[in-house]
Request: fold
Amino acid sequence: MDNIVGRKSGLTWAVHISMALLVALWLFPTVGLFVSSFRTADQIATSGWWSSLATQERQNPAIRVAGDAVEEGGLFRISGNLYGREGVTVGAWGTSSREPEAFEPGRTVDLDDGWKLTLQENGDYELTSPTAFGDARLPRIFTTAETPPEFTLDNYRSVLLDPRNVDGMSKAFFNTLTVTIPATIIPILVAAFAAYALAWMDFPGRALLIAAIVGLLVVPLQLALIPLLRLHNEVGIGKGYLGVWLAHTGFGLPLAIYLLRNYMVGLPRDIIECAKVDGASDFQIFVKIILPLSFPALASFAIFQFLWTWNDLLVALVFLIDSTGETTVMTKQIVELLGTRGGNWEILATAAFISIAVPILVFFAMQKYLVRGLLAGSVK
Amino acid sequence: MNPALQGLITIIVGVGGCVGYFYFSNVFLDKVLFPAKGPHAGRNINRANMVRPWLFLAPALVALGLYLAYPVVETLRLSLTERLPGGGFAFVGADNYTKMFAEPKFWEALHNNLLWLIVVPAASTAFGLLAAQLSDRIRWGNLAKSLIFMPMAISFVGAAVIWKLVYDTRPAGQEQIGVLNAVWLAFDGGPMSVLLLKIVPVLLIALFAAGVGFAGFLLIRPLLGAGRKPSPAFTALRLSGAVVAAFFIYESLSGILGLVRADLPYGQPQTWLTIPFWNNFFLMVVLIWIQTGFAMVILSAALRGVPEDTIEAAIVDGANPFQIFFQIKVPQIMGTIVVVWTTITIVVLKVFDIVYAMSNGQWETQVLANYMYDKLFRANDWGVGSAAAMIIMLLVTPILIWNVYNARKEMR
Reply:
């Protein structure tokens, strides 16, 4: 605005910086979950995720020497790398928890029974003994080392792909998908016809119906739980996919009708009247003209309904998930994990990120329609 | 049957059924019931056109009636009855309500809900307005907006996990893995800590209380003046608004007092979700984080709709950027701000997942929706559960009436 009068505002920098801060603040929690899902349980438990992005010096948990001994000129030798990977720089090490930083790297230390232990800077160790090791307990090594960032896909492998994992998400993932797709498609169709009638057909009571739908938009679905559960039980649907599809359809309809009607009313009257003059029936007008023209509004609602059904917990809890737990959805599975695996962040973070990933992809792919829908749905 | 297959069949049957219903009912109407030929062709066409809207509407109306309208009535009935052990129901009048009102947990839920009701919409709208205004002025504004908007796509449960990680606590002496505790331990009780943790929050709360007080004053001013008396309905509305304002001023003052008196335990990691009263705010942060994007998107569109010439006129008159924002732009988008506020208010009233997943109402964080869920499905007390649902409905009703009123006004 200030450019209009030819004066560069001194505020510009402040604006850039505050916006960057705000964005960082908003992104920070999600990034934390994302990063954590690629770390091992040990890493998560011993350091904050923000420190995992840079090389850091810290004290590692003790690692016990292991490996097969090789005999060489009367000496038994066990050697290997402590970390099993490159890039670690040992700063100091020790063999007891009381003195974890007793020795510098490269030094050879005499242990009991004539054992000699050497630890190099890169984590290579060598343990030698004049006699066979047999079943003797090998020493533990405490290290303080600079560790570069390390990430793993193991969490995703075990949560998503391991069929024996009872905490796995694969079943819940498919269940969620099974709930979501019909619950998104069916209300669109039902609502589109109703919206057309409310937008382009004249009949007594139309205004009243529109007002009723605006009213139903805000009715909390909490009210519907018990009456509908009873209804479903009496009709014989019980708890299951059919019930949850029907419930999502019913709960999604007011917004669908409202959005679509608002959009359809704005379509040019000429097209519809021309078609009528040419002898098209209402059904033909709807299918051949209105429906294709309303694509943006249909897409908006589809995204809303998809996000809502995918992210829903309450409706699934009440109408879908029975005592066998076979039909659990991802949100429910995560709540369970929060209860039973509250401290196992590697499982929780991975599970949560799997459930978040799909909506976020949809969000970024179809943001345009989502914004349009929001604007049409709430600004009057 | 495999659920995926069942889903596919449902899609086909559902979609096919819908299309078939609409198509064949129209054909039936035009060809069999009122054929547009023969001696009564004209009359028949008119009749068919009278019936047709209802054909188009029927499935939607049935679904709406069954899934939204009927439950409201049924819940009202259930809230006035009690389940008998052998089955069946007995009418008990207002017993469920009196039983509920006698429970401290209910008042705790109501109290917390009122807190949520003011803090979340206010904070979300304020942050949304800030983000909208800032992002409108910079080149990477669209990217910034997408990133702030992104939490909208994240489920409440997912958000609960994300924020539980932020609030995570490790015993003292270990390295903290929750950001909040890591930041908290950086405070050592020195002057900087006092400034950031006592003086600034007290000023913010005082500012908020002053704002609420001013709004309350504006509400009752017409009643004090000698001018023409407003209608009783408006008087009641204004008075109730003033009462709510007084409640929040009281809350803020007690908050300030608590904060000043509090001896903050510097250097000790905190389990944030178990600190009574304040843990409510840690839960609210989650919803604010989600809803800010929504507020920002809508307010940003409204800000762009502000006529350019009003702003140019202000610049010519020598207004500074703050004056332009607060005195030119904000008053012009007041309508949109109200819409955003009410929309978020409705979300807040229904808030369930966040509390259910993060604290399940323990440590004095209960809210109405979770209280209701507890009653319905844990205590199996349908009467009290329905009564709680009716309270939520009652709180929604003013917004419902306001929306319907606006929609009707707009249609005329």
